[in-house]
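Schema walk-through. Below, the input block comes first and the output block second. Nothing else is stored per chain. Lengths vary across the set, and this one has 140 residues.
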Amino acid sequence: MPAARSADPETRILHLDLHPENVILTTAGPMVIDWANATEGPPELDVAMTAVILAEVATDRASPLSKPAGELLAAYLAEVGPVRLVERAASVRAGLGPLDADRLAEAAALVRQAMPEAVPTPRAAAEGRPGDMAPEGAGR
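--- output ---
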């Protein structure tokens, strides 16, 4: 969704808390809820934030959702391809909530570890694009 305030055509409205609990199914189709963290910025930040949030749950070994979250993270990363801005997403996430810094670092590490190589995702291939963005710092 284009940004409301920014003149930069690359800037979009970001949710910054997109995960399964913030998507409800309605008769009109899926609806995203809980826009409390919404802001404007690069779309890659929202993609990275979703990966970090899924990884947070996956790294919570006490949670019964840990394993399903890890599986969802792997499927998500397989679809979106390499994710840039993981460190920035972790930094933004640290400022949004009471998450333990060590667990957040573990979540960011899990995202980096689980990322596929820069090969075309199904969506990128269907759109005729080569691979998706390389991870931040990869010099691409």
